[in-house]
Amino acid sequence: CNGWDGALGFMVGANTGNSKQGLYSDPVNQVLQTSSLTTNFDQAYGGIYLAGAKDRMSFDLQANYATNNFDLAESAANGVTDDYLIGLDGKSFSTNTTALSGRFNYRLDVNAEKLISFIPTVGFNYFSNTGAVVQLNETQSLEVAAYDTTVGFIGASLAQSKINPNGTSALTYYVTGTYYQDMGGERDAVFTSGGDTVDVGIDSIGSYGDISLGLSYLQSLSNGPAGARQLNAGAWVDTRFGENVSDSYSLTAQIRLSF
Questions:
Q1: Three-state secondary structure along the chain?
Q2: Which residue of 18, 167, 182, 184 has the smallest Cβ count within 10 Å?
C-alpha cells in the first residue's frame, strides 16, 4: 500500500533468567544493605505483530500477553545478622503482563556493495502488570500492587547482511547500542505484620544503556506451514549498565512466522 510492504503474524515464546538486588530493612540505618535478593524467573508469552518497510524506513508493532513465575532466594549481607532478613527466601509468586511495543528504523548505507548499513532506531515498550501477594509466614505478607510502566528508547545498529544468490534468504550480523528510560516511577507495596501495615516504595530502574551482538536470519517461504510466507530467526547477547543496573547479561533466541 503506497509503496509499503507489510507482514502480520503471531508469536509464542519463553524467557528464563535471574536478577539480584540489595535489600535495606534496618529502620534506623536505612542506607545499610541488610540482605541480597536473587529472583529466578520464567515467562511464557504469545501475541501478534505487524511489520512494514518502505525504501529506507521500517517499523514493527507488537502486542502480547505473558505469564510470569518468580522464585526468590534471600541471604544476609556481609557483616549483617539473619535478624534483618524479611522472609523472602524460598518464596514464589506469579503475575501476568500485557505489553505493547513499537519501533521505527531508518537505514543509512555505509557500504552499499558489501551491504553494510547504519540504522538509527527509536521506540517504546508499555507494560501493564498484575499485582501479587507473597505470604512470608502465618502473620506476615508482602503485597505488591498492580502497576503500569512505559520505557522509551533510542539507539543505533551497525549491520552487515549476506544475501543468498537465489534471493530468498539473508543472514545479518549486527552490533547495537541503546539508551533506555523507564518512566514508570515508584511502585507501591504493603508489608503486613499482624494487624500493622507499612507502605513500601520500590524505585523504577531509571535510565540505563544496553550493548548487544547478534545475528538474524530471514527466509522467504513458498509453501510455509499454515500459509506462512516468511520465517525470521535470531539470536543475540546483551549487556546492560546504569546507576541501578550492574552485572546484567542475557542470551536470547527468537523465531517467528509471517503470514
A1: CCCCEEEEEEEEEEEEEEEEEEECCCCCCCCCCCEEEEEEEEEEEEEEEEEEEECCEEEEEEEEEEEEEEEEEEEECCCCCHHHCCCCCCCEEEEEEEEEEEEEEECEEEECCCCEEEEEEEEEEEEEECCEEEECCCCEEEEECCEEEEEEEEEEEEEEEEECCCCCEEEEEEEEEEEEEECCCCEEEEEEECCEEEEEEECCCCEEEEEEEEEEEEEECCCCHHHCCEEEEEEEEEEEEECCEEEEEEEEEEEEEEC
A2: 167
Q: C-alpha grid cell for residue 178?
A: 541503546
Residue 96 grid cell: 501476568
Per-residue model confidence as pLDDT tens digits over 70-116: 999 989 888 788 887 878 889 999 999 999 999 999 999 999 899 99
Cα-to-chain-centroid distance, residue 89 = 25
CA dist 107 and 46 (Å) reads 29
Cell numbers at 70, concatenated: 518468580
Kindly tell me if the per-residue pLDDT of 13 is higher than 90. Answer: no
What is the C-alpha separation between 83 and 247, in angstroms, rounded? 28
CA distance 192 to 134: 10
What gap in Å lies between CA 45 and CA 119, rounded to an integer?
28
Q: Pairing mode, if any, of strands 187-193 and 108-111?
A: unpaired
